[in-house]
Prior knowledge:
This protein is α+β, with helices and mostly antiparallel strands.
Amino acid sequence: MQHACALLLAIGAAHAGAYAGEPDGEQAVVQVMQAYEDAWSRHDAPAIAGFYCEPAVRVTRDGPVVRATRAAQEATFGRLLPLLVSQGYDHSAWDRLEVRLLDASTAIASGTVTRYRRDGSVFERQGVTYGLWRTAQGWKIFFSATQDPAHALSFGPAPP
């Protein structure tokens, strides 16, 4: 996982400056990631699955898992969300979100998300990193990974 994130960060640092000013660039990705987190807060597995490319890769503690179709994504989130809710999860919010464009069609989004219980107490906090691809339907996630919040990527200021 650390190697995959380091590779994405190195690529991003090398290429981000050329695309930082693109009108439909980083801010569009931020909007997509905000909407993605809103779908989590609604516990809406089909909506969450709709944010992913086909196929997409999820890096887990046990290694990469390819989810080839939207149906596979829906099934995964359809199992995960009820489990989280049964444990007390209610909604999520970004604490920090950073985005860098690698080129006109590829972006990295990384930051920290806090999941809350209904009473507002913290359920869990995690670092998250996503690779996104611009498709005819907008920005879609093709890579996702969670990590310790202290290890979420931080890009610093965009190059001029």
